[in-house]
Amino acid sequence: MSAVRYDKKGSRGCPFSKNEEIKINIDDIGVNGEGIGHTDGYAFFVNGAVTGDYIRAKVLKANKNYGYAKLLEIISPSPYRTEPVCKNADKCGGCTLQHLTYEKQLEYKENKVKNCLVRIGGIGKEYLDSIMQPIISMENPYNYRNKAQFPVGQGKNGEILIGFFAGRTHSIIDTSFCCIQSEVSNHIVGILRNWIKRSRNKPYNETTGEGDIRHIIIRNGYVTGEIMVCLVVTHKDIKGINLLIKELVKLPGMTSICLNINDEKTNRIMGPEVVTVYGRDYIEGKIGDILFRISPLSFYQVNPIQTERLYKTALDYASLTGSETVWDMYCGIGTISLFLAGRAKAVLGVEIVPQAIEDAKKNGEINNISNAVFLCGAAEEIAEKVCSDKEYSYIANPDVIVVDPPRKGCDKKLLDTILNVSPERVVYVSCDPATLARDVKILRDGGYELVKARACDMFGMSGHVETVCLLSKQKPDDVI
Ligand code: SAH
């Protein structure tokens, strides 16, 4: 970068100034799916631009080594650019990769995992290339979600808004179509929109905390076709609910209609109380041969087809013969635990949300699985307790430990316990490659080696990627 440019642009040593127009080649994709262009070692992040585009943009913010710019014109489009299916793709926070071909999305996700494992995990690039299996892709990267969550609000002129939050904001973009939701969800939103208009219920106002209806949540059970509609409301006294039920039950598969009460001024979507107004208080879905009960508050993977493939990979990496004791930490409603139980001697599932553990136990029962036990609490605490408390001696020496933590990764204390317990294999299922790589490094430093890794695309059109890694205990003669 030239000194002249520094002198020209001001005291902070920044080579560009706000509102300046630039022309730039986009040569990379950022962690949130934004395009990145480099010029003289300086990086610009540009939403809506993709690798291979040559663009004109306006500088929004310029720091010393990197800045943000607004896309003004695509001077020459990238060969990887494709027309988004959804007209709101550039505004929505969900589908940041929709303007990229699906093949390029997969390449981006695979590279993201690889880069993290190399840079943060300390794995040699050539070695990683030799052990990493190709990403598990989706046949149809649209209409895959089994859970839709639409905020309800009011526009400036009093009109009802139902749709999604614009990227990183809380302003609702009104829409009746979302290309990653199931068709039935999009249809149900239409029914609810008409009903809210006709009923005298008011959409929620986030600023004042007034109004009746905050969110619409729709879940559908894969294979079973069962549907749940849950309205998040500020109180139970919702007007015209019987009319709504009458409309909704006309749809085949409608199994559960409920209200979730959330009267707090909070960003959290749901409150703790659920009132069922029609049918059962849960729906059922299937992953593989196992039936799962899904209640409004339970966590459940949103892409059932890819979830089955992800779990099959985890099962394959676990190499179970039927004689093993397995821990499944961060087990949610017991999905992975029950998936593994058929091939193991005993499985312990641990999860911090009490409702999820109740569901996990129930799921064990309805599938007649008797060799899985579930304990509620923080994985890092329970793991320690199981090791020290005689009551749990039958399950205290796992051969395989599976972890599937939230984005922040495993608690360091849990990783220490894993190293102490020293299972033959650790299968790490992750939704965040950066924290995965951080934890892989800790396990490698503690005597494990990464022997297999595979990314799985669970969230087409978004920048998120799921990964499964197998870490095996190094034998003394492996260590030189
Ligand atoms: N394995 C499950 C859930 C994975 S999501 C599945 O595939 O469906 C991660 C889960 O970890 C969530 O259910 C979350 O509630 C749980 N969790 C978060 N922090 C935890 C902790 N410290 N100890 C145990 N579980 C935790």
CATH homologous superfamily name of the largest domain?
Answer: Vaccinia Virus protein VP39
Ends apart, CA distance between termini: 45 Å
Indicate the overall shape.
globular
Q: Can you count the helices? A: 11
Kindly state the percentage of residues in helix. Answer: 25-40%
Tell me which CATH architecture of the largest domain applies here. Answer: 3-Layer(aba) Sandwich
| Class inferred from helices and paired strands | alpha/beta
**Radius of gyration from the alpha-carbon trace, in angstroms:** 25 Å
Largest sheet: 8 strands, mixed
**Strand percent estimate:** 25-35%
The CATH class of the largest domain: Alpha Beta
Oligomeric organization of the protein chains: single chain
Associated small molecules: S-adenosyl-L-homocysteine
Strand arrangement across the biggest beta sheet: 6-21-22-20-19-16-17-18
| Global mean pLDDT | 92
